[in-house]
Amino acid sequence: MLEPLRQGLPPLDPAAASDAASCALPARYEAVREARQFTRRTLDQWGLGDRFDDVCLVVSELVTNALRHGLSANGVCVNGREPPVRLHLMRWSERLVCAVRDPSHDSPVTRETDDFSAESGRGLFLVDSFSDSWGWHPLAGALDGKVVWALFRLARTGSRPNGE
Predict the structure, then answer these.
(1) How much is the pLDDT for 2?
(2) pTM for the whole thing?
(3) Which position among 37, 57, 148, 160 has the lowest Cβ density within 10 Å, counted as fewest Cβ atoms?
């Protein structure tokens, strides 16, 4: 069974991010490795290397989905000047957002996860399992396509145990 994903913006203002980084990714599957390397460097620079495993898994799934579904949907042409997929990482004091832009207008769709022997179809299930929230929104203005994002809560620095 396929379920359409609810639209929504991440609950943070991108202009208020304390750190932001992005990279353009080529329309080939090697881009997933490039996205992981970019994520590793960025998280290390921000002192968030301890979050790499979960964030990297989610980035890998979002980029793979953008390459697999975002480029093939509606006959999207990928021979323009700018690479069609872009990874954005944004950090606020207590949140990290990973966002992947692709040129497709099709909404992401989750699949039923009963068949764990299937070789594909679990990407959004993994994104949901490893991030604190996620969603997507269409792009407006000069940009075409959509952004799929995942949000991670970060521990407060200097906070006491149990969040007190």
Answers:
(1) 36
(2) 0.80
(3) 160
